[in-house]
From TrEMBL:
Pfam families xrefs: Acetyltransf_1
InterPro entries given in the database record: Acyl_CoA_acyltransferase, GNAT_dom
Superkingdom to which the source organism belongs: Bacteria
Protein name (database record): GNAT family N-acetyltransferase
Domain N-acetyltransferase: 4-172
Lineage: Bacteria, Pseudomonadati, Pseudomonadota, Gammaproteobacteria, Alteromonadales
Coiled coil, from the record: none
């Protein structure tokens, strides 16, 4: 197998990220406008916390991470149960790996790179909403293995995305009932 290359997220990666994200997570999961916003939220103090994995110049994985203080808390954030202050928490928006490269450590490497840069940005922890319906519940297993601890379970987490953006869940269709596990990794 050719060597996988890791790079900080750049606009030149957007089309590959959109294609992979919509293929893995369902139609309308991510679009160019959203990705531009995510890119802006990833950078703080000239440090980018989002990363992509490339194989022969093709995006085969990505980790979108928002810097602490750049993202909006919502009803899916149980801040009173977090071990650190909300403004010290980065947000792990999305981790996606092409099925041909799963199980090879790509997701863990992307997370490790994001944590390294989030710490440089000043974050003390990172939070994610983990898709509990991922194939084989791999998202939960991977995030737990990387140190993630469950804060709270949120049924129907992604249903509002259908209503606002037309997101179609690959498991449930138009009426997503998938549970999102609010999970946190504290940095040392």
């Amino acid at each position: 197998m050719d060597q996988i290359e890791y790079q900080q997220l750049a606009p030149s990666h957007f089309e590959g990220i959109i294609a992979l994200g919509n293929h893995v997570h369902g139609d309308n999961y991510i679009n160019h406008e959203q990705l531009e916003d995510y890119y802006q939220k990833s950078v703080q103090n000239n440090i980018n916390a989002s990363w992509v994995a490339l194989l022969n110049d093709k995006v085969i994985g990505f980790r979108l991470t928002f810097a602490a203080g750049t993202w909006t808390l919502d009803e899916w954030c149980s801040t009173d149960e977090w071990p650190v202050k909300a403004d010290e928490v980065c947000y792990f928006k999305c981790n996606t790996v092409d099925e041909i490269c799963r199980g090879k450590g790509v997701g863990s490497k992307l997370l490790s790179l994001s944590i390294e840069n989030a710490k440089k940005q000043g974050a003390k922890a990172g939070m994610a909403h983990i898709w509990m319906a991922s194939p084989g519940n791999s998202a939960f297993k991977y995030f737990s293995k990387c140190g993630g601890k469950v804060v709270k379970m949120h049924p129907n987490k992604w249903q509002p995305l259908f209503e606002s953006d037309g997101y179609v869940c690959p498991v449930c269709g138009n009426h997503c009932t998938c549970t999102g596990a609010e999970m946190m990794i504290e940095f040392d």
